Prior knowledge:
The complex is a heterodimer.
Chain A: H1 4-15, H2 21-34, H3 39-58, H4 68-77, H5 90-94, H6 96-108, H7 110-116, E1 123-130, E2 133-139, E3 144-151, E4 159-167, E5 170-177, E6 182-185, E7 193-200, E8 213-216
Antiparallel strand pairs in A: 1-2, 1-8, 2-3, 3-6, 4-5, 4-7, 7-8
Chain B: H1 6-24, H2 28-50, H3 53-70, H4 81-104, H5 108-112, H6 117-121, H7 131-142, H8 146-157, H9 162-169, H10 173-194
Amino acid sequence: xxxxxVIEERIVAYVLGGMDPIERASFEAEFAEHxxxxxxxxxxxxxxxxxxxxxxxxxxxVAPPADLEDRIMxxxxxxxxxxxxxxxxxxxxxxxxxIAAALVLVAGSVAATLALxxxxxxxxxxxxxxxxxxxxxxVSGSDDAxxxxxxxxxxxxxxxxxxxxxxxxxxxxxxxxxxxxxPIELAAEDFDLVAxxxxxxxxxxxxxxxxxxxxxxG
Amino acid sequence: MERPGVSVHSLDEARxxxxxxxxxxxxEESFRALYRRYGAAAYGLARRVVRQEFLxxxxxxxxFLALWRGAGAYDASRGSVRTWLLSSIHxxxxxxxxxxxxxxxxxxxxxxxxxxEADVAEVVADALDLEDDSARxxxxxxxxxxxxxxxxDLMYYGGLTQAQVAERLALPLGTVKSRCxxxxxxxxxxxxREEPT
Lengths: 218, 197
């Protein structure tokens, strides 16, 4: 038997995000069973969900970084995407001159890039080595970077590469990417090691596999 | 702007549901269209809760990718696409905050950085045509007694569980639960009053 006042209280806690994972799972299971036969609770749930979406919309809308759309499309479709209707990417262009040049060099010739390492106005290029190979180009003091898989095996379905930065001995997850060169945002500006692991789509809070490539930052 | 509330909402909902059907068939342009429609609201919400740009980006990315893969599972009878999407963003954001907090053990942070009450009413919804909703909600939240509003703020925007809110405010858990319930009943009746169906 379910007490309807109690269930209303639980619906409210659920839509507000006020449950811990165990409470949430048990609510979901019990409610899935209860709802089909109960018009009242179905209605309450739908109304309270609507209220919570108004709470969501009361948070000021903020335009996401311009490159996020293409990153999502690339991960969704498993290929690098650049649509004809692509909008301008000002944040990305901030450091575009340096990094785009590096990208061309990297794509053209890894050897040529090596010669460039550490040169020109804070532009850093580092080679990640291991079972796979990646090149990371970034501008020090900025969070914008380009990651170029130079020798990376194809990813399994639902898998992505994820970049990690070691900061104070802790691995900090940065963005995820596929097998094509992609812009990536660094989660920190000061790190002493970069590494790449194979992770589920969306990335992981902590590495779940061993790095397939890494590089110490001198 | 002329918008007779209810019917515009229904049109939007129908359009979103149609986008989602196309997405379920793998239509990339519809996926882009949905992202462009809700990306800013989603990112704004994620940032409000997690307060770190790169985490907010990950949440938006994860949520949209999950939607791309799971669009076929959407059930229109259970609410609008918008509600589905935003509650998914919120769940992930709350999980992310709790993971971060567990990591850093900076337990005081959520409290110190708790959303100032004035912010909730100060609504900017420039990327979307949402001014009406936002103003309405800002008004509704503003109309809540401060003690109810504070509990909703800490929970929804601060990512705290009811038990954590109780601890933070040194209140019995039952009091927190009943304040939530009263606040949400009030918000619900404000919403249904303005949107008769």
